[in-house]
Amino acid sequence: MYVAVFGSKPYDVEYLDRANRQYGLKFNYLKAQLNEETRELVRGHDAVCVFVNDKLDQLVLETMADAGIRLIALRCAGFNNVNLRLADKLDIKVARVPAYSPEAVAEHTLALILTLNRKTHKAWNRIRENNFSLNGLLGFNMIGKTVGVVGLGRVGIATAKLLKGFNMNVLAYDPFSDELAVKAVGIKTVPLQELYHNADIITLHCPLTDDTFHMIDAESLESMKPGAMLINTSRGGLIDTQAVICSLKAGHLGYLGVDVYEQESDLFFEDMSEQIIQDEMIQSLQSLHNVLITGHQGFFTREALTAIAETTLANLYEFDQTGTCKNLLAKNCFL
Fold it and tell me: Which of helix, strand or coil describes residue 236?
């Protein structure tokens, strides 16, 4: 099987090649993201391997079908960037990595919370300039505070466990939660509006679907406690960024920590330091003292990259040998 690996970075090459030692598949590593402009690059391959910001819409998928592509191997858990209905119609299978290291994203979530609260990023900069003043660095004790976890998949559960370790009151919302898993963690599930109303910190851990797109909008922000902290390490489209900016500027939302951004495909994973950023929303966010942005690095640990590569290679090899694999997306994911 000859696989086009789009959006490949040096770490992708390292970990995929290492996992490929037992399979012997052939990779064509491409730096370009897969989208309408680069879709012709799929020709001559049997499968494509893509990541979170590759865009597999109608034109891309039709080109893939014409080129004889049989499999889309996502090296991630989310699949909102693929037109699944059309892929199914064109008989192009889609496989993903359903779970790699939920602890990696959960721990990054905690890092965002702690950094925003105790302002360690600002303290680090001050100390480098020999400024040892504590003014402006005041935080709060997390013990006894209420945190709301939206989404109780593997990452949400892992995050809830960490937050329980801080002796926080953990509320959670997920219409499809595993009751046994929730009970085992010892958290309380509540309606979403109750979570918004009571939580000092809200952290998002749900997929991006038609139902969850801009679930954090002006109305939901208004229902949150004044001064609340909002964290998103899932998908950027969960948040209406302009509404969040307005809430931050109005002094209602107290903190924002994001590892994802709804327009990140034009920015993240690239060195933009020598360019003028044209995105006014992210410039507005960067100008606010109570906002912390990281560039979709929640997954970026040795353990997670190893698991992603191993599962992706297993998906490709199994499909090549049998025409199917256990991590193919089922129709109920998109019907």
Answer: helix
- Alpha-carbon distance of 150 to 224, in angstroms, equals 13
Q: Which of 45, 108, 205, 264 is catalytic?
A: 264
Q: Is 235 a catalytic residue?
A: yes
Decide if 36 is catalytic. no
* pLDDT confidence band for 131 (50 / 70 / 90): very high
Known catalytic residue at 296: yes
- Please give the domain boundaries of the chain with CATH numbers for all domains: 2-100+302-333 (3.40.50.720), 102-293 (3.40.50.720)
Is the confidence at residue 331, as pLDDT, over 80? no
Q: At residue 255, what are phi and psi to the nearest 5 degrees?
A: -150, 150
Hey, what are 121's tokens? 């990023």
Tell me how many degrees the CA angle 322-325-327 measures, rounded to the nearest 5. 175
pLDDT of the residue at 333:
58
Phi, psi at residue 83, to the nearest 5°? -75, 90
Separation of alpha carbons 180 and 140, rounded Å: 33
Contact between 45 and 67 under an 8 Å Cβ cutoff? The reply is yes
State the Cα–Cα distance between residues 70 and 83, nearest whole angstrom.
Answer: 15
Mean pLDDT of all residues in the chain?
Answer: 95
| pTM of the predicted structure, to 2 decimals | 0.93
Q: Of residues 75, 96, 205, 296, which has the active-site annotation?
A: 296
Element (H, E) at 173: strand 169-173
Cα→Cα distances 155→80, 182, 200, 299, Å? 17, 13, 20, 11
Q: What average pLDDT does the segment 186-207 reach?
A: 96
Residue 335 clears pLDDT 50, i.e. is over it: no
Please check whether residue 200 is in contact with residue 228, taking contact to mean a CB–CB distance below 8 angstroms. yes
Catalytic choice (235, 289, 302, 318): 235
Average pLDDT of the segment spanning 7-30: 97
Structure-block tokens of residue 335? 């019907």
